[in-house]
Amino acid sequence: MFNKTLLAVLLGSSVLLGCNSNNDEPLPVPDTGTETPAPQPDTSVINLTDLDTVYGYASENGGTSGGSGDNKVEVTVCTGEEMISAIKNKDPQRPLTIWVNGSINLQNAKDTRIDIKDVSDISIIGLGTQGEMAGIGFNIVRAENIIIRNLRIHHVRANQGAPGDGISIEGPVRNIWIDHNEIYNSLTVDDPTLTEDQVKDYYDGLVDAKGDAQFITISFNKFHHSWKTSLVGSSDSDNFDRTLTYHHNHWYNVNSRLPLFRFGKGHIYNNFYDGALESGINSRMGAVIRIEHNHFADMKNPVMSLYSQEVGFWQLIDNIFDNISWQDSPADGVVAGENAQSTGELSVPYDYSASLLPVHNVKATVLAYAGVGVIDTPPSPGLCAAPQPAEPEPVEPEPVPVDPVEPPTNVNWGSYDASLQPFAANAVTLPDGSQTAFAAQQSGGVDEPNLFSANGDGTVTFDSTASGADRSRAKLDNVVAADGVYPKSFTLLMGIKGNAGGNRVLETEIALGDSAATSATSRLKIVFRNDGNNAGVQLENANNGSSITAGKGNEPDPLDMSQFRVYHFTLVLTSPTTGNVALYVAGNNTPLLQLDGVTMRPASNNTDNYLQIGDAGSSSYLADIDWLLWTDAAAYTPDMLKGLLPAGIGDISGYEAQP
Which InterPro entries does the entry mention (predicted)? Predict the structure, then answer.
């Protein structure tokens, strides 16, 4: 593996310098008048020859072979739909290798992520330098023996019904090898309306591992331009004995989490860290990390334990700290500091000696070998066919003015009173008086779990905290008139109680497509949140493509999202893609949030027409649902609806009849 020729030359030179053919006296050393300088360390590139060998924790538990094997199936894909189909239709008795020959994106996947879920023995590898995941990431859940190599994975947006990571690993998972990829986002967002916190949350992690994730190796990757780079353990309560190895990765132009590691055991060796704005390796909650032969340069706090209820530990073995800025240890944490010492010890169970470089060779060798286009792959069968050009969008007419609405004398509500779980027969009453039920959805062709449970008191609990990666959605189609006539109006009222545990509460989505639509239409995605400073009611991408949150936890008048209240939304679409949105709370006629004349978030399909509640995946949600009411007759304010809510649905605080 090492450059044996160079080693032989150096050894030969040593022998010649020590040889005197005439006698045993040493050769005289000329007096130059200066001290002889100390020998400089070798900083050259080491010649690596075994890039296809799995080292680290992924070599344990029987090893990680992915889609290789004598009876493997091989497919080459150009689109996300082809990749999803190959995974979905995999023969469970045969390994599968997927060669990626082009750019996989949201448009050609027709989904927000690539699920590698409840499967095993799969390799996904880019051909040459052509494999790309542009704006869409991998979601690995309940899977084992998975390999992802030689792909550029970048700009995967958060908050789009997916984990938001380049690669999300959600346990239980075993034997995952992430190797020779380039994974990145951006430290800036071209949207001057976003706050600094919103810019940091625009993208999520590059590679994250949560839950029971073991026997994972992350090697020879380039990680760059990321705020939240690599997370191991989603919270201080995510208590699993995770085992991960990071080796020969190049980290640069990043902010923090290199990685952030809670619980379990980590081995980090032969990485080159080149700049970090805030911090590097953050060992927390009793994690023990062996940090060995790494080169840290031009960064702040390469090794520390901050921001958790308990500290983590590290073993430092022959690392280079070059131009480092150390902060003093705070009262509630530890920073390794200028005279960094080990605080723990970890013996790893595998042999990695053949891959361990001398520390002075790490920088040059990692720069030479990390990223895509380094490993050997089969030749490309040719470029993927160019997608068909989109038809030009028709010019929309000027928006029609929206006249004020007179208070109604009665409202024909669509209603769900939560006396039954939403999929039960006759759980929903439609505006014409007929009854139906919400429909359960599928992810990747598999039925989503039912995470709604009736409590017997007229409320339903929605709970996805057991596995934040699971989707669970209840959908009701045809909730707004599909007559092609604008303006369209919609009013939605929801009686909801959140949670006190810091979990998100519920997702709700309204799509206002039209059966006759030939161009883009709109939807509104609402996320009720109770996670720290991000708590409040978030409208995703509703404000001309930007998200906006009302009642945030760090604002002067935050909403207590753990309490019951009535949330009231009105939408008026003046055209298929533009309109007005208002949010009222607890019957107050002054909007908590109002958007006028904004471009709405586009519907996934132009004809989408539905009301949906639940969790689209990637976070944990917990809520009690008391009732939902909706109508497409008009955009009614709270004052217009006093005394007009159906009797017996539950707590209607703020909407009682006026005296």
Answer: Pec_lyase, Pectin_lyas_fold, Pectin_lyase_fold/virulence, PEL
Yes or no: say if 416 and 428 are a contact pair by the CB < 8 Å rule: yes
Is the C-alpha dihedral spanning 643, 648, 649, 652 positive or negative?
Answer: positive
User: pLDDT tens across 202-240, in order?
Assistant: 899 999 999 999 999 999 999 999 999 999 998 999 999
Alpha-carbon dihedral angle through residues 647, 653, 654, 658, given to the nearest 10 degrees = 50
Q: Cα(193)–Cα(202) distance, rounded to whole angstroms?
A: 13
Three-state DSSP at 50 gives coil
**pLDDT at residue number 467:** 83
Residue 485: is its pLDDT beyond 60?
Answer: yes
DSSP state of 1: -
Model confidence pLDDT, tens digit, residues 256-306: 999 999 999 999 999 999 998 899 999 999 999 999 999 999 999 999 999
Eight-class DSSP state of 20:
-
Question: Could you give the residue numbers annotated as active site?
Answer: 257
* Burial class of residue 403, CB neighbours in 10 A (0-12, 13-18, 19+): exposed
Record the tokens describing residue 102, joined without a space: 């082009």
* Residue 96 C-alpha from the chain's centroid: 25
| Other CB atoms within 10 Å distance of the CB of residue 208 | 27
Mean pLDDT, to the nearest integer, of 48-59? 97
Supply the pLDDT for residue 371: 97
Q: Which residue has the higher pLDDT, 74 or 574?
A: 74
pTM over cut 0.70: no
The answer, yes or no, to whether the previous bond of 358 is cis (omega within 30 of 0) is: no
**Enclosing H/E stretch for 554:** none
Query: Containing H/E element for 248?
Result: none
What is the identity of the amino acid at 482?
A
Residue 369 has a pLDDT of 98
CA distances from 445 to 109, 117, 487, 491, 607 (A): 14, 11, 36, 32, 21
Task: Identify residue 292 by its one-letter amino acid code.
Answer: E
Average pLDDT over residues 555-569: 90
* DSSP 8-state symbol, 465: T
**Tokens matching residue 434:** 């007929």
* Residue 27 identity (one-letter amino acid): L
The answer to whether residues 117 and 91 touch, using CB atoms and an 8 Å cutoff, is no
* Pick from 371-380, 456-465, 489-498, 610-619: least confident: 610-619
The vertex-277 CA angle with 264 and 373, nearest 5°, equals: 75
- Note whether 275 and 252 are within 8 A (CB): yes
198-to-195, 307, 533 alpha-carbon distances in Å: 5, 21, 11
Of 81-85, 348-352, 497-501, 514-518, where does mean pLDDT reach its minimum? 514-518
Cβ atoms 297, 273 nearer than 8 A: yes
Q: Which H, E and C letters describe 400-457, residue by residue?
A: CCCCCCCCCCCCCCEEECCCCCCCCCCCEECCCCCEECCEECEECCEECCCCEEECCC
The Cα 539–Cα 529 span in angstroms is 11
Answer yes or no: are the C-beta atoms of 279 and 256 closer than 8 Å.
yes
Calpha distance 561→459 (Å, rounded):
17
The residue written with tokens 């010890």 in the block is 345
